[in-house]
Amino acid sequence: MSDLTGRVRGPLAPSTAVQRPLSIDDVEIHGGPLGRWQQINREASIPLGLEQMEKSGAAPNLRLAAGEGDGTFQGYRFQDSDLYKQLEAVAWEHCRHPDETYRSFVAESAALLSRAQRPDGYLNSHYQVVKPDQIFAELEYSHEMYCAGHLVQAAVAAARAGLGEDLLGVARRFADLLVRRFLVDGDDGIDGHAEVETALVELYRLTGERPYLELARKLIDNRGKGLIKSTGMGPLYAQDHLPVREAATPVGHAVRQLYLEAGVVDVAVETGDAGLLASSVRRWEDLVATKTSITGGHGSRHDGEAFGERYELPPDRAYNESCAAIASIHWNWRLLLATGHARYADLIERTLYNAFAASTSGDGTRFFYVNPLQRRADLFEDAYLGRRREWFACACCPPNIMRLVSSLGHYVATTGDEGVSVHQYVPGVIRAGGAVLDVETGYPWDGRVRFTVRSAPGGEWTLRLRVPAWSSTTTLTSDAGGPRELVPGADGYAAIRREWQAGDAVTLDLDLTPRIVRPHRRIDALRGCAAIERGPIVYCFEQIDQDTDLDDLALTPGAALRTVERDLPGIGRTVLVEADAVRLPPAPAHGLPYTTGTDAAPAARATATAVPYYQWDNRDGGVMRVWMPLA
């Protein structure tokens, strides 16, 4: 199979890996939820984001830095990063479907940034306008390198998407300044918010300039040595408590930890550092086992937007920031490319269809910052907790969501030395390693996925298909024989090797029987509860679908589950799950909420109706819960 490393048009292009990513435009997504998300991203979300670049102050702040604007600085010290993520989203969308509007936006933004940039390469509108005497003096909370990282990622995207190198020139001048100060001149400063590390590695991959990689390595090696000044949040908050190679579990601010891990894997892969990679895998295993919500979300504490202790996974106070879901997908994708193991694709899928997908409304114009697993009737809404909103004062999530949706094709399939691997199932076309595959499926609502070879390179090669861990029975049918039950290999994939010809076809059938899921016994907040899953979809119960008070319903042990297709306002056609339940007698309304007795009145039979979690809050915004008590 041909090596795509040197010409990948996507977020990640490792120089060496077990699996090699495809370009965004090598995969066409023709339908299903991912196709729908890309459509609303292009038609609604990105136009909204472009409008908000002016309203939120992101662009006006840079005009102030360039000496061109009037007024005062708006927003946070990291406001520039909103523009950078928006630029990346536009670049990847242009890669999918070229548009002169996107080209103009990138060109105009690059010109503005160039005018705002200082002669030495420094660029941060907050510090240039508000604190010019404190440049690089407050790295513990300044986000200067964090913003630089997002600038670099936007510039790499623009270059790879064919949008010129003006933005890349701006980014390289800033990156060169970082190299001079923090690598050549020996300044040991570290940004309190990791992100620049993974960006510097990608800039190295694009340009071949090794100092970018060496700076990323230095920043990772120095984190955990107490070099970050006090943030007032403690050393765990910025992952400065232990050297990266020694840390056993993710801690502190969830997004910072997850972006750090993306950089750790990038540096490990490019430097051949097996020990560094092993440390990231070790933390991943602990994260999955003890600190991951059923939706794939991360961050159990509002205080510090942080991971909690092991098994601290409350449903109602789950933070599960949308940016954490995105950063998790970035980390898992890197681990998948580095190892070729399906468990990372499994977690990408869980996160993508649940924690991430829930972040955006059905029409693409409103977003969640926080993604809880339960909402009560008397929820007190604040600036970030409540129903989805059009934008936020701290708007890190919306443009981050847009850049991932624009690049979804990048995460579907890869090539390797043996052939093509398919990690996520979507209807459309995959062009990989000289092969062209047509994919027909109704996934994730239907478990049948049919692959037809449109064209193929000569000789034998292997088609690897991920067998999701949740599929209890999986069968494969080929034109060479009838259906046979599949047992995946140790890597989690079914491998079919043959000399493929145009017209050859195989059909994968995954088991979408809905299932009751129970929590680990050490998750105290969920004891005595259960949830429902079907395929990769986690379900939740909204009050609007019940004929009694949701909080008075309990699932029966071994509840029978039934699927029902229905059109819902604000959602469209979807698959609901009905579960046998009981309606508990009314609870006492007065006195302490504790008793020594049991319910005297018998429970009445009832049906509890569940909707996909990612589709919640598209109707009345009422009571919701993922985890239901068991009767």
- Helix coverage percent of residues? 25-40%
Structural class: alpha+beta
**Beta-strand proportion:** 15-25%
What is the tally of helical segments?
15
Weakly predicted, low-confidence segments: 1-6
Quick gist of this model?
The chain has helices at residues 32-55, 58-65, 80-96, 100-116, 125-129, 139-142, 144-160, 166-184, 196-207, 210-222, 254-271, 274-290, 322-339, 342-356, 397-406, and strands spanning 20-21, 27-29, 374-375, 413-415, 419-422, 428-432, 435-441, 448-455, 461-466, 475-478, 481-485, 493-498, 505-509, 515-517, 529-534, 537-542, 553-555, 561-568, 572-583, 604-612, 624-625, 628-629. The chain has 631 residues and is α+β, with helices and mostly antiparallel strands.
Question: How would you describe this structure in keywords?
Answer:
631 residues; alpha+beta; ten-stranded antiparallel beta sheet; seven-stranded antiparallel beta sheet; 15 helices; 22 strands; 34% helix; disordered N terminus
Explain what the structure shows.
This protein is of the alpha+beta class. The protein is 34% helix and 18% strand. It contains 15 helices and 22 strands. Strands 3, 14, 15, 16, 17, 18, 19, 20, 21 and 22 form a 10-stranded antiparallel β-sheet that branches. A 7-stranded antiparallel β-sheet has the order 2-6-7-8-13-10-11. Strand 6 (428-432) and strand 7 form a beta hairpin. Mean pLDDT is 96; it is low at 1-6.
